[in-house]
């Protein structure tokens, strides 16, 4: 039975994601994303489940930077988890008496409309995680009156759900990924995604255009691009790319080999089945069979057989 | 004397930025970035000073999203502020007794090395701002032992600086911008930057490549690109662009008109002097004089004068 | 009644083209393409009708080079003329006795199959024009036994048609253009073509790609590209382009202004109705209305109205 | 001793080219370019030397079309031959008496200035080759008074050189190629050229841009591009490309494999040493070593070693 680290404490969305990705796994709650990834790196866990991006908040900076700069890990699976927020309080609390709301800043942002409308006099205080906020609120004598978190967190810590579905948007989704230490990759399924980090050799105008052209020429469709600062001053970025296909696909292999040749560094983050099971539209001439046929043709003409 | 809103309370980096950008302005501290921008929008202030990106943390999501989705504002100036963190505590506190450190999550991340090395047993707690953390720590009976914030915050709230320059990197910089309600733009200086938000018509493969080509063909160099989720589900993004030049420049005007024609929406965020005073390298054939000469040529051939 | 020069003598395909383009014009036969164009330039004629390209032979080098280097002329109309060849001889000649065939080299090439099959022992001799060959063959005592030319030439010079439709392909077409001295352009019809000559600033790798991108970015579709040597040594070329649209169209104007800015020289050769009346597929965002709307938007944001 | 066919009769520029390319070869004069190539195809000769392009006239259509459509042949060498024209006549002819000048149309075009200036009353008549014109002029009772051809042709046929260097430009060059039946290719020399013919799948706007991008992305520099009609009507073209490098080079192999995948057909015409011995500028990341290193990297990440 594998053991997987995740952003704890119990009751987080990460725990929900983990239960979907690996229902039978032993769960190891960690204090934060870095700790969960370190547990996987050091072998205290067989892997970790961490958030990569949120449809409202964007990329999760800590995860993106850990995957780019930390000791290498491989993404082996993903899940898209609908995010539903509840207002949770100790039994006996009345909604009209809530003055101090505790939650993760992303959750506070996503529930801004509800708070402004229903609790206009309350102040919001930032917590390290939504489940952590629930845990804290559950303590007798907590300075906070309510938490915003997943319903599961309320159940876990014995809180009452005063309101549910309080996010400003009902369709918010967080994408979680399952990462492991380097190991053989998941087999191609025909509906895969590959993730990559690219560092530019220099930051000349047009460098990003050149990178995108390496993908376009081989018919590889990007699904996400995110720039992150390298830390070397304003204006210096590296890039996270997600794109359709598996590194075992010829077109993907050639495209990222091209990036590897012309960029300062490319870090492969894994090829894994897409959670949405969407198969890519293969552009004419870019299927594996096309590459194989072209390789045969090239071998022939190189020996003068035309 | 103009009045400018900023992320308060007194002692934040935003206040430092404001003092540089507008030394004589009256200062209106706000609870958060959104509140500062709203003060400018509603006319309670003449403008606001807010962080846009940090060389370590990347784009400031709230600012980016407010500028993209909120009532329109224009960037009229920018400043690059070196970020130096100090460990601040109430007089009499000994460093060995610090168990609970309060600060903004970005500051906690940037000082992770120092904390792990010097205060391995301390826990860190997220605060809404670095200055707010200092303010809180200064209260008698505060549950927190120390704050990580700018030195200026310590001075302001009567805290002692136990350590300075405690960031993991000594060269971290935050870029702050001065925004106002729509108004005549700053004059071109020859070393300007323009900011833009672009929403795609549809998310077809190659859409980003097409956008970048609109810039490249007119010789306009990008200095920042940042994707942000539209909120409509994983995989749907819009883009923030910063690039060299002023919207009054012919090449910039033609490039962004091209984007406006082919994209669902383009929001202009302003043209303003670059803080680093770097003049752009003008590609052959893209100076204003080249555009003017070409316009004259086109007018002639359209009347059959060849 | 306008007077038009053409590649004579009477009976050439050029005469046929002229009769279609300008049925009522007075016709001035010229010795060759250059002479016809010079007649138009010097005012001896009001214009000229010359071949520009042939579906089998390609661009007509003399015409292309005259339009590129000679005193400027404007194309005002085009016609696509099916080319049908006949074997023509003096009355009384038997096909079995034909030993020497006279015609323009292009015609000889296009009838190679017929000659090899039906007249394997005959030799072919190059003539300056197909009609000129017919004229020569018609002379008593001509050293040539037969001409390959248009049927009309045979009728004109009193020759007998021994075989018709003898071209190797039945669908050969020559494109003729009507040129005049610089004058107001034909009005846009919605199905127009524009012709251009472009000289590169330098011959760096990628220069052609850059030119094509100027067209592609504005959604202007090329219909013909032809490289021609500049005369300055092997490897130095200039380019003829034909593309969809009229120079009065905003997208065409911007595209060729872009070329004008970045290339050493651009010579406009005219905008005129397409012979095939095909309307272009207008790419999203590139109609005149789109350009006008974008210009209005740009004017507004330049004054700070966002 | 190899036997090579060439455009005869003796005294042509093609013979000069052949003597440079293969001084010891037996020479087989042919009536025209097609005949010379057919002699090579049928084994009557071991190869052929034919003109491919001229710095003044452009591509030699017959050669280009024969290489594209005829039974496959491979280019194994090239030579750049300066073209100098002389005015040649029978002994005793005075220049003032020359009324009829016989030569190949290309030569007549290239000497147009001299003829207009020095022999304004003479007419020019098209011959199948310059040396053939000299041969004809040498016949007693020839209807022609003079030929324009290479000096060598005059020497060969006993003509007197009345004027030399009579071309309008002194620097005209013709590029001749040595072709053979398919056979092992010449070894790479580090300063090679590769020739190719490409047929488009369909003629959509942007197809040419896509082809050029296949080259550009792999850092392969084009040295010649020529469109030729497919014969299927005006507006249908195929393309001849010459570019730097040898098909054995990794970047060349990947680029033309890409073309092969996305185009209807690609015909390889050979890789051979450049006559000018110019080595290519290798773009960063496109040397063979870069491709090999990238292949190793790809193999590793495909097994999950990151």
**N→C terminal distance of chain A:** 58 Å
For the CA atoms, what is the radius of gyration of chain A?
23 Å
- Low-confidence segments of chain A, ≥5 residues, pLDDT <50? none
CATH topology of the largest domain in chain A: Alpha-Beta Plaits
Task: Give the helix/strand class of chain A.
Answer: alpha/beta
Number of helices of chain A: 10
How many strands, which pairing sense, and closed or not: the largest β-sheet of chain A?
Answer: 6 strands, mixed
**Secondary-structure element sequence of chain A?**
EHEHEEHEEEHHEHEHEEEHEEHEH
What is the CATH architecture annotation of the largest domain in chain A?
A: 2-Layer Sandwich
- Average predicted local confidence, pLDDT of chain A: 92
* Shape call of chain A: elongated
Number of strands of chain A: 15
Name the chain pair whose interface involves the most residues.
Answer: A-B, 44 and 44 residues
Quaternary state of this entry equals homotetramer
- How would you name the CATH homologous superfamily of the largest domain in chain A? ACT domain
Beta-strand share of residues of chain A:
25-35%
Helix share bin of chain A: 25-40%
EC number (chains A, B, C, D): 4.2.1.51
InterPro entries (chains A, B, C, D): ACT-like_dom_sf, ACT_dom, Chor_mutase/pphenate_deHydtase, Preph_deHydtase, Preph_deHydtase_CS
Domain Prephenate dehydratase (chains A, B, C, D): 3-181
Enzyme class (chains A, B, C, D): lyase
